Sequence to fold (238 residues):
Amino acid sequence: MTPGFRWTTFDLTSQLPGDWQQEITTAAAVADFRDFPRTPILSRESVDVHHISRGRVHASDLRRTLPWLYKLYHDYFLDLARAVCREPVAAALDDRYGIVLNVQRGTTMRFECHVDSNPLTGLLFCTDHGAGAGGEVVFAHDRDAADIGAVERDCSVIRPHAGHLIFFDGRLNPHYARPLSAESDLRVVAVMNFYTESCPESTRPLELNRHTFRQALMARSRPGQRERESATPRPTCR
Ligand SMILES: [Fe+2]
Fold:
């Protein structure tokens, strides 16, 4: 029998800086909002879905505008990640994807249905969403689920609570974030990649970096920046 999906939750509501939610909301207001093309390799969207609308505060902007959150990723949150894992855990060395903010506003945005390439993911929920408000993270029990409908048929649902940090291994169970129910609502979550000894950062697919950061560079239209990537193929964990 396939084991059920599991995650670990830490309630950090009394341990974050006093105005943490306001600072994050301010940073999220100027996120990169647009239609993001489906992610190569990892997407579990229906074949007719080519773009998903959402917002992102990229890692470099997060480090500049929310330095305390960047620091927490590398120390306290990393300590918590190590507490839930049986093997050594490391934060990403590459700052481009270590920690970012995913942002949804209104009813048309959601997060792509996908599987993770990293063995341990942390989500710090930054906004509250009550029953019926949408914004839940939904994990398929069927590892072969290939679209949102298949995910929803048999799933675990996590409702965002501001200040809760969850850890999970999302490599096998497709998952996505539901759209919000209200046009005026805002959903913000800090997404963190962690790596382990058996699935180190070097296994992150190069194609994923090429896709993600080419898109970000095109969106910003900053001339002169070039992604630096080794052409050496890398193994994958699974
Ligand atoms: Fe994920």
Residues 206-220 form the longest helix (15 residues).
